[in-house]
């Protein structure tokens, strides 16, 4: 692969070749990744004034300052590379696949007499992983089947030949009830154990036919040797495997190995169902939601989802059934829209799942919206507010023994946090641990600014604290002439008492009330935001003070380091070359000497 960079003005110089293009903004942030059969034609289409691009795309094009391309051998290679880059960087204009779950895997460990167990963490050196499984129930069904068919150990003993031969272990209950053959005391040799494990791997891969052939051969061998009890056990296991396969079967066993991917969409989202089918049995079924970013076509959305899901579920299918006729077939990707037969029925089943998922999401969204509206209306009623509090702002202070005093303001719109409206404050006019004066300062600064900018005031102001903090906030509003233009309350932590200005006695909202839970959530979010900022400032100040004690390093150099490396830990981990690039060679050497001394102290 070969990479090159171009300015937007030079887009016509791009090669007529398959590849991936990356758009960067003026802050050198990757904002979009795309793939193309012809880089020249595809990238030029963004800058063609006569092209019918939508508003979102025009907005993105205005941000582009640099184009970087990577040439590949085929459009399929471009598609796979695009998927890897999006998964790694998640650029803001690329399609967002909404799925924040971590899926379970089954792990066969890399040790003597390997074990099989479930895990959600992938550490390749531990062994071989199978999955991910779209549901825990499906995974447990396979694991239960394997444990019924084979005697796989469940203990965590270190069964190296030396420890087994030395007689360090004794058999446990699993041995006595027939779930283990006692490899810990030498009753089962490793080659026989691994022979069973190999068949378990075939089942985990969905290749039930291979496992069935194994049990048939074992049954015949035992029968020929007149070992009828052992032959009967093999027959029972074969029956169990066939029963499991019959329950999993959704179509003809002649359908060997394929994926099914269908899509339905609306104006903002697309809903995709993905199924993996092996030997007529569905071994994976997964629904995902994609948020549209740049008015992508249904075909683009389907291909994007397919590639990501095949990557996620490690598919090796040679054929993919889809419900949208591709206008631009991709060489190397075998996409089929079936018209009749069992494959058509698979598409219908998948579409039924996608449509149900869309309906479920719409219903859930409506219920969530209704709930939020109900809660803020209940809050209006509980606090006797003149307007629905669909815009709430909450303030909190943070300092430890008066050091690095800071404050926070969080904003909730329509009952949901609006993170872009959150604000941090350094306390400027107060010395020492004075929460009341600090509260007065930040409230005055916030609403003086809104007043000057002509922005709307919130429908409710919440102060984290009791009467003292509330009184200070009220003083601030009075001094800037906006008291009375917005309701303000204080919420005390201990008993969750609600204070109003001028009232000596607090009111209490029912502890189980949804409106009180909303206030608590807002208050806790303000506290979390303040504490996080305070820790960051305190860490920066402490490190900055240490740095300025080093000859040749002043406050500006300390700031440069923290701004570039983002944390103290990363500064200490940086190489001499990295430090030199930021602060020059002499200061970098002085800093490294200090870090080494600190390590040795």
How is this structure best summarized?
It is built from 18 helices and 20 strands. With 601 residues, the chain is α+β, with helices and mostly antiparallel strands.
How are the SSEs ordered, and which strands pair?
Blueprint: E1 2-6, E2 19-24, E3 30-36, H1 39-47, H2 55-63, E4 66-71, H3 75-89, E5 96-98, E6 105-109, E7 116-119, E8 127-130, H4 136-149, H5 161-165, H6 173-176, H7 190-204, H8 208-224, H9 228-248, E9 257-265, E10 269-278, E11 281-291, H10 298-312, E12 320-322, E13 335-336, H11 341-383, E14 391-400, E15 403-413, E16 416-417, E17 423-426, H12 435-453, E18 460-464, H13 467-479, E19 488-492, E20 497-499, H14 514-548, H15 555-565, H16 568-573, H17 576-583, H18 585-600
Parallel strand pairs: 9-12, 12-13, 14-18, 18-19
Antiparallel strand pairs: 1-4, 2-3, 2-4, 5-11, 6-7, 6-8, 9-10, 10-11, 14-15, 15-16, 15-17, 19-20
Helix pairs in contact: 7-8, 8-9, 11-14, 12-13, 14-15, 17-18
């Amino acid at each position: 692969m070969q990479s090159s960079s171009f300015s937007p003005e030079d887009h016509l110089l791009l090669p007529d070749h398959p590849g991936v293009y990356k758009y960067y903004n003026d802050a050198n942030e990757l904002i979009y990744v795309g793939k193309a059969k012809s880089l020249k034609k595809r990238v030029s289409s963004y800058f063609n004034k006569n092209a019918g691009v939508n508003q979102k795309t025009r907005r993105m094009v205005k941000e582009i300052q640099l184009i970087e391309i990577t040439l590949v051998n085929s459009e399929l290679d471009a598609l796979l590379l695009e998927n890897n880059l999006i998964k790694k960087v998640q650029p803001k204009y690329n399609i967002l696949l909404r799925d924040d779950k971590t899926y379970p895997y089954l792990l066969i460990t890399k040790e003597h007499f390997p074990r099989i167990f479930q895990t959600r963490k992938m550490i390749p050196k531990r062994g071989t992983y199978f999955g991910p499984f779209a549901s825990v129930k499906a995974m447990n069904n396979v694991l239960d089947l394997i444990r019924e068919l084979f005697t796989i150990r469940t203990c965590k003993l270190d069964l190296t030949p030396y420890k087994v031969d030395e007689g360090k272990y004794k058999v446990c209950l699993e041995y006595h009830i027939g779930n283990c053959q006692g490899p810990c005391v030498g009753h089962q040799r490793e080659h026989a154990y691994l022979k069973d494990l190999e068949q378990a791997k075939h089942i985990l891969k969905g290749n039930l036919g291979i496992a069935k052939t194994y049990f048939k051969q074992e049954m015949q061998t035992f029968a020929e040797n007149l070992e009828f009890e052992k032959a009967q056990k093999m027959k029972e296991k074969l029956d169990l495997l066939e029963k499991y396969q019959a329950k999993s079967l959704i179509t003809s066993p002649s359908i060997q190995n394929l994926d099914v991917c269908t899509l339905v969409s609306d104006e903002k989202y697309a809903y995709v169902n993905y199924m993996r089918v092996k030997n007529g049995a569905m071994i994976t079924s997964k629904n995902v939601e994609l948020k549209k970013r740049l008015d992508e076509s249904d075909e683009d959305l389907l291909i994007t989802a397919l590639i990501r899901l095949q990557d996620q579920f490690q598919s090796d299918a040679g054929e993919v059934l889809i419900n949208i006729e591709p206008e631009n077939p991709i060489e190397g990707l075998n996409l089929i829209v079936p018209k009749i037969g069992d494959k058509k029925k698979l598409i219908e089943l998948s579409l039924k799942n996608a449509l149900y998922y869309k309906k479920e999401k719409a219903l859930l969204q409506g219920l969530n919206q209704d709930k939020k509206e109900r809660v803020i209306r209940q809050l209006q009623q509980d606090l006797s507010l003149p307007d629905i509090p669909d815009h709430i702002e909450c303030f909190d202070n943070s300092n430890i023994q008066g050091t690095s005093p800071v404050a926070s303001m969080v904003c909730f719109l329509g009952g949901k946090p609006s993170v872009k409206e959150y604000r941090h404050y350094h306390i400027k006019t107060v010395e020492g641990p004075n929460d009341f004066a600090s509260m007065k300062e930040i409230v005055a600064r916030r609403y003086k600014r809104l007043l000057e900018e002509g922005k709307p005031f919130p429908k409710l102001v919440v102060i984290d604290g009791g009467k003292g903090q509330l009184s200070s906030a009220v003083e601030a509003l009075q001094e800037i002439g906006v008291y009375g233009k917005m309701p303000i309350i204080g919420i005390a932590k201990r008993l969750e008492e609600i204070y109003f200005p001028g009232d000596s006695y607090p009111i209490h909202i029912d502890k189980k009330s949804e409106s009180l839970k909303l206030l608590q959530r807002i208050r806790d979010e303000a506290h979390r935001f303040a504490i996080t900022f305070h820790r960051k400032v305190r860490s920066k100040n402490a490190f900055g003070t240490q740095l300025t004690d080093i000859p040749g390093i002043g406050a500006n150099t300390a700031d440069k380091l923290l701004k570039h490396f983002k944390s103290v830990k990363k500064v200490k981990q940086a190489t001499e070359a990295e430090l030199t690039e930021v602060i020059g060679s002499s200061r970098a050497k002085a800093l490294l000497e200090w870090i080494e001394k600190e390590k040795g102290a």
